[in-house]
């Protein structure tokens, strides 16, 4: 199970959310929204240190019984959240980092599109394909 989300500050509404399988989508929405609070706490706790060291990967935000929630924040304060099944022990920290980098790069490509209005929901076939390939890799 992998849920991928891109959120835009300061309102923290999801610009893109994709989950596999889709049966528990409401549960994932709740998990994502609670994890955004944890992201905000981590950012405020790091404060200036985050800006100085340019570390965008926030690591494991919190584990639940069934899932692990990871976070990433860009320099422009756009938040990425990934929810991964706890039973997936093959997934290492550096693999999660590289998945976030791929998400960030694809998000940057969307922002460079002159027809995209920042703050709109993301409807991009290339972004969907990239997220689907990441999900296939994990599942």
TrEMBL record:
<dbReference type="Pfam" id="PF04628">
    <property type="entry name" value="Sedlin_N"/>
</dbReference>
<dbReference type="InterPro" id="IPR044760">
    <property type="entry name" value="TRAPPC2L"/>
</dbReference>
<keyword id="KW-0963">Cytoplasm</keyword>
<dbReference type="InterPro" id="IPR011012">
    <property type="entry name" value="Longin-like_dom_sf"/>
</dbReference>
<dbReference type="GO" id="GO:0006888">
    <property type="term" value="P:endoplasmic reticulum to Golgi vesicle-mediated transport"/>
</dbReference>
<dbReference type="GO" id="GO:0048471">
    <property type="term" value="C:perinuclear region of cytoplasm"/>
</dbReference>
<keyword id="KW-0333">Golgi apparatus</keyword>
<keyword id="KW-0931">ER-Golgi transport</keyword>
<dbReference type="GO" id="GO:0005783">
    <property type="term" value="C:endoplasmic reticulum"/>
</dbReference>
<comment type="similarity">
    <text>Belongs to the TRAPP small subunits family. Sedlin subfamily.</text>
</comment>
<dbReference type="InterPro" id="IPR006722">
    <property type="entry name" value="Sedlin"/>
</dbReference>
<protein>
    <recommendedName>
        <fullName>Trafficking protein particle complex subunit 2-like protein</fullName>
    </recommendedName>
</protein>
<dbReference type="GO" id="GO:0005794">
    <property type="term" value="C:Golgi apparatus"/>
</dbReference>
<keyword id="KW-0256">Endoplasmic reticulum</keyword>
<keyword id="KW-0813">Transport</keyword>
